[in-house]
What does this fold into?
Amino acid sequence: MEKSKVLFTIAATVILSTNFTFADQGSLESNEYNKGEVKIITQEDIKQNAKDYSNYNLIISPFNQEYDYIDDWGSDFRYLGSGKLHASGYTETGKDVDNIRTTVYLQQYDDSNKTWVNVDSISNNQNNSSYSSTSQTYKVPEGFKYRLLIIHKATEGRVTESTSSYSSVINVY
It folds into this structure.
């Protein structure tokens, strides 16, 4: 009987802390992500970008690939409320390389064509460095799904390593 009480207490604690974490993530209206310039994107901008990126091809690197230079990569994608999204990405190498680059594509789901459309991109390019990151806050049209595609690239001499990652999907209502 004591064992089941302990297990119940542990399970309840995990469930309650998870719920508090999720509840807190949506209340970012007045935090550090709202500092600085917000890029406003209209649905008309998205339609134009869909045409501009229609020939965009991407080769996705396998996740289990080993790299000589790229050590770590990632992104952060948050809904701030009121149609605002905060997007960021980073790339890290274990030592300084000739060039390191992080490019983040904000994508909107086009329900009629069942495809993801590149809405905007931001990038950061560093020479003789081991770290690159970029971020932007957006005001986007509501009623759509959004995600990030992040390209991570490092060049040392004639060797260029590249990988990509996706964020989770955010529904903006």
Remarks:
- The chain has a mean pLDDT of 78.
